[in-house]
Amino acid sequence: MSYSTCLLCDQMVPMYEKFCDKCLANHPTLRQEKFYWKASHDYASEKEKLIQFLHLKGRSMEQVALRVDRHNEIVQDKMCYWKNVEADSWYLYIPRCGVGSLKAHTVIENQDGTITVTPSIEVVGHDNGKPVKRHGYLTNGKWKEV
Ligand SMILES: [Zn+2]
């Protein structure tokens, strides 16, 4: 019998299965696909998408967002925020989701240039046409997924 690794935790699983039993139990929304074939070329991207989907990164750690001067200075794979001086409003960019206006939020600019936003932020966007919803707190420039 051949083996592969669970997409979430790298534990060994039978070759055609996506997840180990432990991950399936921890995440009831996951579905085992009995005859799933892990092609090596898309294994990494599949894994990344899954982590994003489950917000595992946000849940396990805070993510530092990058302050940029304006919209066109966004770094594609980094969470970024900036102030539109003319409009006197702040914006947040979330990779694989989109840009959200913080107009309806209270934004405090800290001494170190980071911002703290209240209440929590919800951004509905898309990733290659697939709808994505992110919800979290931005505190002192650090994002924590809800
Ligand atoms: Zn697992």
Structure report:
The chain has three helices and twelve strands, in the order E-E-H-H-H-E-E-E-E-E-E-E-E-E-E. It has helices at 21-26, 40-54, 56-60, and strands at residues 3-5, 12-14, 63-64, 66-67, 80-84, 89-94, 98-101, 106-109, 115-118, 121-127, 130-139, 142-145. The model has no long low-confidence stretch (mean pLDDT 84). It has two domains: 3-54, no CATH class; 63-145, no CATH class. The protein starts with a strand and ends with a strand. The strands form four sheets. The chain has a four-stranded antiparallel beta sheet with strand order 3-12-11-10. The chain has a four-stranded mixed beta sheet with strand order 4-5-6-7, with no helix packed on it. Strands 1-2 form a two-stranded antiparallel sheet. The longest helix is centred in the first third of the chain and has 15 residues, at 40-54. It has 146 residues and is α+β, with helices and mostly antiparallel strands. The structure holds zinc ion. Zinc ion is lined by residues 6, 8-9, 11, 19-20, 22-23.
The ligands bound in this entry are: zinc ion
Q: Give the fraction of residues assigned to helices.
A: 10-25%
Give the overall pLDDT as a whole number: 84
Largest sheet: 4 strands, antiparallel
In DSSP terms (H or I, runs of 4 or more residues), the helix count works out at 3
Q: What's the helix-strand series?
A: EEHHHEEEEEEEEEE
Main features:
single chain, 146 residues, alpha+beta, 2 domains, four-stranded antiparallel β-sheet, four-stranded mixed β-sheet, 12 strands, binds zinc ion
